[in-house]
Specification:
The protein has 726 residues and is an alpha+beta fold. It has 4 domains: 8-129, 2-Layer Sandwich (Beta-Lactamase); 137-301, 2-Layer Sandwich (Beta-Lactamase), CATH 3.30.450.40; 329-384 and 600-726, Rossmann fold, CATH 3.40.50; 417-591, Heat Shock Protein 90 (2-Layer Sandwich), CATH 3.30.565.10. The chain has a 5-stranded antiparallel β-sheet with strand order 2-1-7-6-3. A hairpin with a 2-residue loop joins β11 (275-283) and β12 (286-295). The longest helix has 79 residues, at 303-381. The protein is rod-shaped.
Length: 726
């Protein structure tokens, strides 16, 4: 077969050689018939050496890279093709030098058939060098990614609440949006050279536990030259990363091994890292950290990209400083708010105390009427064997419980004085647990272990009741969501020698050796972590939600225990529950309080003036005095009582007066009566008065102070104690 040759005159040599493009003409046998000057220049192959050669034999990689089909289809099917440099990169392998590196040329290739009289006579291949354009567009794309990442980070700077959030999300954006391999931030601790990994976005690598790269830390270990000897940093470290030394960005080309520290060279090789950029983070004119960025791209961190990153690092530093000041401001405001909350809470308690005092006075008057009339009926109107007696006992029991409840309210509001007396704590324990069974949800099981022989202590009963209630309700709160077991154990324990006390795991070194009441309250709730335990006795500290607690319960318990020369311990495990133990000195057995046995009620025949502004209380007082054998006059106005006494000062042997009355209080009335007759015995009754104490009435000359509600036996004993002294 005779190959039809294309005349060279078809394309003038002058024209083809003057164009800045490569032109190759093939005949129908795919042999080269034209190889212009541009191809000679970029391939280093002369036309005379290549003309007549089969193109696929000279350049077999055309077939290897599956590009021959475009030439064949062009010839056989008369089709034209355009091969993009982005997709195909090149057709004929031509080397060029770019950035001091020899690379393959990015080619824009056009392939089209040549026809003569409708018959395909060959193929023309036109090659245009687009390397510069591709690199330029790639650079623009890279800068666009960097710019977009910086825009995302600028948005982050506005919404970031903490330094940790700022730095962690910054590293994430640099990797996710910009396309760097990974990034991390090292912060420099104050007063010591120590770089700690603060935040980062590291690639997964099983060779590095938890995704951290300790090798990276070595990369930035460099300090100002004058600090090197002070910190003991070798001179070689400062040449590794002079970011802190110069306070300027530093770029390392990882392809040039001598510039890379040994600790990082292996990491760079395994992860194909091409470049590392370290950017200083400065605050107040001092470098406080370094942002490290690692890239797998060739020739990263130069020109506009580096300038953008430097500006970005400066912005990050500014926001870090701003967050620092904001955190300080917030802490100050939080402390101020806490102080205001404490003041508000104190005012609420004070207001509650004022309200409780008024309620206590009126409520005790009501209880006094119930108690007094019940006792009169029980003692004087019914025979001892009457079946009604048991019901009257129930009424009196309820009155005594109500009286204790009033005292507890006043105790909480610090509106009453406390007196210690011998008492059996096991009775208080049983009463508290009886109350708790009725008030706690069924999901909480109560277990008690209380010794039959009560442990006697010298204590204020109201305080002991309050202490145990607080411990139990605190334990119940820890189990409110899932339920559990509340265990209360009351026993006596001996701490007989100092060594035992000091060596105990519970740390009771402040207690003297001896016998102690031990109260243990255990729950199976959520428990506490070691950081919380030291703070639980602080006033206003609470782990409960808003509106669920004041933070005063355990502080009050601690104060009560310390006020009774005792100790309180706590042990807790997060998720397993908490154990509180209270130790209070026990009284010797011979000093135990004996149950009062009924004795004959004391009576008399003296003349008594009884004053109370409540008419029902005045009537009750007169009735009780009459049943006790006294001759009495009952009045409801303090001014009327003063006028009567002034007119007949010797007509009475005793005056009993209420404290809270209109026009003239009982204290003021007593002063006036004593001015008229200094030796007149006076008993002052009060439902509640924070202004009256034993010291106060003793200075006035009042002989006795008794608290409402008045029981007939307590009134009889007080009268005889005052009158018999005279």
């Amino acid at each position: 077969m005779v190959t039809h040759q294309i005349s060279a005159s078809f394309f003038g040599e002058t024209l083809t050689d003057s164009l800045g493009i490569g032109i190759i003409i093939l005949d129908t046998d795919y042999r080269i018939v034209r190889w212009n000057y541009w191809m000679e220049k970029h391939s280093s192959v002369k036309a005379q050496d290549i003309l007549g050669q089969h193109i696929f034999e000279i350049y077999p990689m055309i077939q290897e890279r599956d590009k021959a089909k475009y030439i064949i289809d062009c010839m056989e099917e008369k089709r034209s093709f355009l091969l993009s440099p982005i997709i195909h990169r090149y057709l004929i392998p031509l080397d060029i030098v770019k950035n001091d590196e020899r690379i393959q040329m990015y080619q824009n290739v056009s392939i089209f058939p040549v026809s003569e009289n409708g018959v395909v006579s060959g193929t023309v291949i036109v090659i245009k060098d687009l390397t510069e354009q591709v690199f330029y567009e790639a650079e623009i794309a890279r800068l666009n990614r960097v710019s977009k990442g910086i825009r995302d980070i600028n948005k982050l700077m506005i919404r970031a609440e903490t330094e940790k959030e700022l730095l962690e999300e910054t590293c994430d954006i640099l990797v996710r949006s910009v396309g760097y391999l990974f990034a991390w931030v090292g912060l420099i601790a104050e007063n010591a050279f120590q770089i700690r990994v603060s935040s980062g976005n590291f690639p997964d690598d099983p060779a590095h536990e938890n995704g951290t790269y300790p090798e990276c830390i070595g990369y930035c270990r460099a300090v100002q030259r004058e600090k090197a000897h002070e910190y003991g940093i070798p001179e070689t470290w400062m040449n590794t990363c002079p970011v802190i030394q110069t306070e300027k960005a530093h770029v390392i080309d990882c392809t040039k091994a001598p510039l890379l520290p040994a600790c990082c060279s292996e990491m760079a090789r395994k992860m194909e890292i091409q470049g590392i950029c370290a950017l200083p983070l400065a605050s107040g004119g001092k470098t406080i950290g370094i942002l490290h960025i690692f890239s797998q791209k060739k020739n990263p961190f130069y020109g506009e990209e580096l300038k953008l990153l430097e500006e970005f690092a400066s912005d990050i530093s500014f926001v870090m400083e701003m967050l620092k000041h904001r955190d300080q401001h917030r802490r100050t405001e939080a402390e101020k708010a806490q102080l205001q909350a404490q003041l508000h809470q104190s005012q609420k308690i004070e207001a509650l105390g004022t309200l409780a005092g008024g309620i206590a006075h009126d409520f005790n008057n009501i209880l006094g009427i119930i108690m007094g009339n019940t006792e009169i009926i029980q003692m004087f109107d019914l025979p001892k064997d009457s079946p009604v007696q048991s019901r009257l006992e129930d009424i009196l029991g309820a009155v005594y419980r109500a009286k204790d409840l009033v005292n507890q309210i006043l105790t909480f509001c610090h509106k009453t004085e406390h007196q210690k007396e011998p008492l059996l704590f096991n009775l208080i324990g049983k009463e508290v647990l009886k109350f708790l069974r009725a008030s706690l949800p069924a999901t909480i099981e109560i277990r008690q272990k209380i010794t039959n022989e009560g442990v006697s202590i010298l204590a204020d009963p109201t305080h002991m009741h309050q202490m145990l209630i607080n411990l139990c309700t605190n334990a119940a709160h820890a189990m409110k969501e899932k339920g559990g077991v509340l265990e209360v154990e009351i026993s006596e324990t001996d701490l007989q020698d100092t060594d035992t006390v000091c060596d105990m795991e519970l740390n009771l070194s402040n207690l003297r050796p001896g016998s102690y009441l031990r109260v243990m309250v255990r729950d199976t709730g959520h428990g506490m972590d070691p950081e919380t335990i030291p703070r639980i006795f602080d006033p206003y500290f609470t782990t409960k939600g808003v509106g669920e607690g004041t933070g005063l319960g355990l502080a009050l318990v601690h104060g009560i225990v310390m006020g009774h020369e005792g100790a309180i311990t706590v042990s807790s495990t997060l998720g397993s529950g908490t154990v509180f133990q209270v130790f209070i000195p026990a009284l010797p057995r011979q000093a135990e309080n004996k149950a009062d046995s009924p004795t004959q009620i004391s009576k008399g025949h003296e003349r008594v003036l009884f004053v109370d502004d409540e008419e029902s209380i005045a009537k009750l007082g007169k009735s009780m005095l009459t049943y006790l054998g006294y001759k009495s006059v009952s009045l409801t106005a303090s001014t009327e009582a003063l006028d009567m006494f002034r007119s007949q000062p010797d007509a009475f042997d005793l005056v009993i007066t209420d404290q809270t009355m209109p026009h003239m209080t009982g204290h003021q009335l007593s002063r006036e009566l004593l001015r008229i007759r200094p030796d007149i015995p006076i008993i002052l009754c009060t439902g509640f008065s924070e202004k009256i104490s034993k010291e106060t009435f003793a200075e006035t000359g009042i002989r006795e102070l008794i608290h409402k509600p008045l029981g007939i036996r307590a009134l009889a004993e007080a009268i005889r104690e005052v009158l018999d002294k005279d």
